[in-house]
Design goal:
alpha/beta, Rossmann fold, 5-stranded parallel beta sheet, about 50% helix, about 15% strand, globular, YtoQ_family_protein
Length: about 150
């Protein structure tokens, strides 16, 4: 079984597209918590209230980092999606962490981000523009078969 960690942008259905497309493959998926409110509030919900916004966010980031580090460490392949609407600084951090661990990294973004992400792209083993391309990479890795 190939373990794939799906990191990055949370505002579109790209994860669902990959998971559905890979339904017949021997793949398991993991990801960060994609409910924005839960992700933001996990630190104070678990560790207690925090009136200062910096420490509020800091608590959440650290609790989320436990989950993220485990997911990336356990993964065979890490897919990092950079969306169009927001700058995903955390996604860039995840890509760097995966690269530092020597994980097989697939970066997913549109052509408009190619220049801004050139260093991230250079660390990746593949740069895809569409979720279906990620599915085809996974299929090829597992079966050696090409699309079509």
């Amino acid at each position: 079984m190939l373990k794939v960690y799906l990191s990055g942008e949370i505002h579109t259905d790209w994860r669902e597209q990959i998971i559905e497309g890979a339904a017949k493959l021997d793949v398991s998926f993991d990801s960060p918590v994609t409910d924005h409110e839960s992700s933001d509030d996990c630190g104070v919900a678990i560790l207690g209230a925090e009136p200062n916004k910096f420490w509020y966010d800091n608590k959440g980031a650290k609790v989320n980092a436990i989950r993220t580090r485990k997911g990336i460490t356990d993964a065979d392949v890490v897919v990092v999606r950079f969306g169009e609407k927001y700058k995903q600084w955390n996604a860039a951090f995840d890509a760097g962490y995966a690269a530092a661990l020597g994980k097989s990294l697939i970066v997913l973004h549109g052509p408009d981000h190619s220049h801004a992400l050139k260093e991230v792209d250079a660390a990746a083993l593949a740069v895809a523009e569409e979720p279906r391309q990620v599915v085809e990479i996974l299929r090829y890795v597992l079966t050696g078969s090409l699309p079509g």
